[in-house]
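Researcher: Quick one. four chains, 290 residues in total.
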Amino acid sequence: MENKTERFEKLLVKNGLKRTAPRLQVLEILSGRDSATSQPYLEQVMGKDADRVTLYRVLQAFEEKGIIHKVLDQQGTANYAICSDGCSAHEHHDEHVHFNCDNCHKIYCLDAVKIPALKVPAGFKVEHLNLIATGVCANCADKVN
Amino acid sequence: MENKTERFEKLLVKNGLKRTAPRLQVLEILSGRDSATSQPYLEQVMGKDADRVTLYRVLQAFEEKGIIHKVLDQQGTANYAICSDGCSAHEHHDEHVHFNCDNCHKIYCLDAVKIPALKVPAGFKVEHLNLIATGVCANCADKVN
DNA sequence: ATTTTAAATGCAACTGTATTGCTTTTATAT
DNA sequence: ATATAAAAGCAATACAGTTGCATTTAAAAT
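Model:
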């Protein structure tokens, strides 16, 4: 079995992106997390390994190539999670529900929960659906009484 | 028939808020719009009639009293729209779908379109649902051919 | 009508997220 | 080994939103 770094390197090359240290490190971090990740978080854990601006640009490049997808938290901060298979630069297939925990503020991708189709008023043309549920996540259920 | 300003004044008093010029003016503006409104927009149209901070505080007070509800646009900026009847400080009943136009960037409240109930994984407890559809609105349909 | 007072406004400074322009470095192709 | 286009680094800036504090004012009390 090939190791993780090799997989990430192939992923970059496949998308026409150079194999650089900041990019590999971001992929490493994102893949090790169970919830969506923001630039400020990456900046904090990576310290001087990467410039603030580099992180923003890495995230933007990954999103454009369909490697990660963006979801805003309740403060309006962008958070990113690795896309499930089937996403590409041309088309994102990430129309699953996101869950925003009021307690720990993590954002989970509920990949199994799809967003139902919607009937909108005449004239409106829906391109994408974005459903964010807020509440208490499974990990916090105990702590919150 | 009582005039609009009288209605707004009663609305403020009913919610224990003083009848001030900035508040009345914000209600006036919000009621005259067909889409959700941001602080920066209010600041722009009101000019020196109200301080930036005052507008933020007015919007916050209105939201707490259930007079308006908040919806984030795709950039994460807060936008506000007047609540339909039935909202109060204790409970918001604004779980309708919001529509974010990719062309004019307006945010519409589709009051008629309710968010369907959702089945989430065990352990997660859903408190609120927030569904934003993006695409092209009825007004822009022609322009975008 | 005048005074009192709690609430609201205005102003200045600040925080945090994100972006832009430009220079330097580096991965990859030649 | 060299050339070059892409990426990273750095500085400055934009923009939404917040906080602390002094001043003003709506509404209540006298």
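Residues 18-20, 38-40, 52-53, 56, 75-78 of chain A lie near DNA strand C (CB under 10 Å from a C1').
Researcher: Thanks, that's what I needed.
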